[in-house]
Amino acid sequence: METHRTGAALAALLLTAVSGCAGGVQNEQDTVTLTFADLTSQDNTLGQAAQAMFEAIDEEYAGTIEVEYFWSGSMAGGTEILNSLSSGMVDSASIPTAYYPKDLPVASWAEGLTGLAPTANILPPFVVNPAMHAAFDSEAVTTEYAEHSAVPVTVATTDSYALVCKDPIDSLEEARGKLVRVASTQHGAEVEELGMSPVSLAHGETYEALQRGTIDCTITSISGAEDLGLYEIAKHLIPIGFSPTVLPVLFNTDTLESLPEDLQEIIRTTGRQAYFDTYAHASFDEVHELLEDGPLARDADTEILIPTDMRDALAEFRTQRAKDLAEAAPEGVDDAEALVTGFAETAGADAPLFEEASSISADLPEDAEEFRARYATMAERTGELDGYLEEVAP
């Protein structure tokens, strides 16, 4: 449900005299009014997860959670949304760490932990995400966000990013010199390793840049490309395992601490679980639909390419960077080795569980046919995947 409000009073609680009980919570029935901002649309995987999160919180809490959603950057653009949250203009938001390497050096470093885990295209939301929750619960990360009046309550790790290009690229030789839109220093380094040139552009400018030929390709999630309509003008998808992006859901500190303690606990537990489950399923479902009936279907005109020399060079580069991660930790990370080891152990333990549940290898696919087959296989095993998600719940 939605309501309207403005200013720092967005977190005001309107108490009623009616007592109630829902989901086992004993509490006076409260109406809690909140705002939430996202750079993506309400139909995007992140948007679906956010709505499911607030619906689950509302269902368990003995009252009504009313949320006004600001989609597609309508509250603030990619480089302004953190300030909107810190200042109290919005109560909660999904904010990419990649957009704030200077403001959030620790969180940006933590995003690099994804290189320690298998990153075949389907895996990150299912395998990397639980391990990333532990990293974002660490003191080093939460202390940094506290400096921006923000509290991480859950996190999404995207599917492995891919190239979406106007022209086909079949090899490292053909990739050399191509201009590629990137949104993070990590993706910039990966692009340069493949001989391409990174270009910094705002998220919303990607479509026009591809259309005009200002850039040749962009790095994006497979579902994110559909969200921006990129397959209309860029007909070549190259899913070779670029690093996933990490998008924590943050609450303004004052907003969260002003809420009743039982509601805060529900946000951190029930809300987190609902977001994780919905995002994992939605990430898979959207790509599966794109492959079955959308612009990536066999009879559509978008071509899927997996140049093996590019795929292998990228995997080798990411592996090497991951090995150096602890030494590259920024100031403020006192337990870098422990964070790196903990992340690797968690993701390493979850990967075989996922493989058993899905029958899908943690290795990158060899070709377009194997890429397609993996999504078809998972579509037949949703029951097993539900059991897996419950077992690895963050």
UniProtKB/TrEMBL annotation:
Residues 1-22 form the signal peptide. The lineage of its organism: Bacteria, Bacillati, Actinomycetota, Actinomycetes, Micrococcales. InterPro entries: DctP_fam, TRAP_DctP_sf. It comes from Brevibacterium salitolerans. This is TRAP-type C4-dicarboxylate transport system, substrate-binding protein. Gene3D superfamilies: Bacterial extracellular solute-binding protein, family 7 (3.40.190.170). Keywords: Signal.
